[in-house]
Amino acid sequence: MWPLYAAGFTTAFGAHGIAANLGGFSEDAVTSLLVLGGLLALYDGAEVLLKPVFGSLADRIGGKPVLLGGLIAFAGASALYAIADSPGWLWAARLGQGAAASAFSPSASAMVARLNPAAKRGRAFGSYGFYKSIGYTLGPLLGGVLVWAGGLRLLFTVMAACAAAVAVWAVLAVPVVPPLPRKRQTVADLARRLADRSFLAPTAALAAATAALSVGVGFLPVSGAAAGLGTVATGAAVSVLAATAAVVQPKAGRALDAGRLTTRPGLLAGLLITATGLAAAMLPGLVGILLAAALIGTGTGLITPLGFAALAASTPEERMGQTMGSAELGRELGDAGGPLLVAGVATVSTLTSGYAALAVLLAAGPLLALAVRPRTARASK
User: Fold this and answer.
1) Residue 367 CB partners (closer than 8 Å, separation 6+)
2) SS in 3 state form for the chain?
3) CA angle, 245 as apex, 10 and 238 as ends, to 5°?
4) pTM, whole model, 2 decimals?
């Protein structure tokens, strides 16, 4: 399992470590906000388009070849810019990194599910999410140190070495998980399976959690600056968010495996806690920002392992990669949609209104579910 956790760390560290430092330390390559936006969109756009494709490929040929191919491609794409060091090759490197992450990220998730029995998947996905959260937390910080010490080329060099090392580790330690026999699946069959509640509910919760996480990381520093707080205080708030999510995920996974927590109540509680965190972000000053960070981190940390474990439990083993790739697509859409919603509302109103809009959206589903279920129970008596 450890190389799979390392693969999760690599994709998170690569995504945030580079993205957080493109604008401030690469004046020759990033000449405008439009160019910066394009470079950031390349990585995420490749993931949105290709994750379901590579997830299905992992089902067809096995997860390990796709995992290794993605890690090797990530190392090659990173080395491309480290060697060439020109603005044009930076675009190619970011596109290559995004495409490569689209291969090894869903295949790693699928192998986490395949290599663990149902009774241990909560703990496994909790640990996987923990190391991804560590990557998200350390990426901007360590990336900034590396760029300060040796420029973007050094950061891309470290990314290449990291991916290559994980690939070698996976070759040696990860067992082969052969593809399972699959029944013929039509487009209509796939559409019915992805439209089923057992897929939509956990994926929607994962997308909502990712949306809130992205908004917290991106906009809490803006709220801090507006309240007159310095970069150290706002940076600490973001670190609280990421660290809380990292700590909660393994605990939630273990509670699920032990039967102390079940999926549906856990997801509903996670969404409500996350929505409360977004509401807390509307409070002025450092107290509101820290409270928001802690609550958003707790809610998203609760949702992530429960959502993936629920998806694994409801998916045929031979379609695990396809399901994980499609779920990752939902998370990417949440990652983009949350900040867009908050920014759009803030443009016509205020940032606090943007927080409120996303909080209402996240709380609506759980509140509706809690309202409908008692009525259904009374009707059945």
Assistant:
1) 272
2) CHHHHHHHHHHHHHHHHHHHHHHHHCCCCCCCHHHHHHHHHHHHHHHHHHHHHHHHHHHHHCHHHHHHHHHHHHHHHHHHHHHHCCHHHHHHHHHHHHHHHHHHHHHHHHHHHHCCCHHHHHHHHHHHHHHHHHHHHHHHHHHHHHHHHHHHHHHHHHHHHHHHHHHHHHHHHCCCCCCCCCCCCCHHHHHHHHHCHHHHHHHHHHHHHHHHHHHHHHHHHHHHHHCCCCHHHHHHHHHHHHHHHHHHHHHHHHHHHHCCCCHHHHHHHHHHHHHHHHHHCCCCHHHHHHHHHHHHHHHHHHHHHHHHHHHHHCCCHHHHHHHHHHHHHHHHHHHHHHHHHHHHHHHHCCHHHHHHHHHHHHHHHHHHHHHHHHHHHHHHC
3) 85
4) 0.75
Number of neighbouring beta carbons within 10 Å of residue 205: 30
By mean pLDDT, which of 62-66, 92-96, 145-149, 296-300 is the weakest?
Answer: 145-149
The closest alpha carbon to 39, from 25, 51, 50, belongs to 25
Q: Letter for the amino acid at 284? A: P
- Predicted pLDDT at 159: 92
- Which token pair is 146? 């590396």
Closest CA to 103 of 146, 142, 70, 150: 70
Q: What is the pLDDT of residues 56-115, one digit of tens each?
A: 888 888 889 999 999 999 999 999 888 887 777 888 888 899 899 888 888 888 888 888
**Over 90: is that where the pLDDT of 169 sits?**
yes
Contact 380/296 with Cβ under 8 angstroms? no
Q: Which residue has the higher pLDDT, 319 or 207?
A: 207
Buried b (16+ CB within 10 A) or exposed e, 249-275: bbbbbbbbbeeebebeebbbbbbbbbb
What span, in angstroms and rounded, lies between the C-alpha atoms of 129 and 13? 13
Q: What is the pLDDT of residues 232-278, one digit of tens each?
A: 676 677 778 888 888 899 899 899 888 888 888 899 999 999 999 99
Burial pattern 350-364, b for ≥16 Cβ within 10 A else e, equals: ebbebbbbbbebbbe
**Residue at token pair 């801090």:** 224
How far are the Cα atoms of 109, 168, 256 from residue 112, in angstroms, in the given order?
A: 5, 18, 16
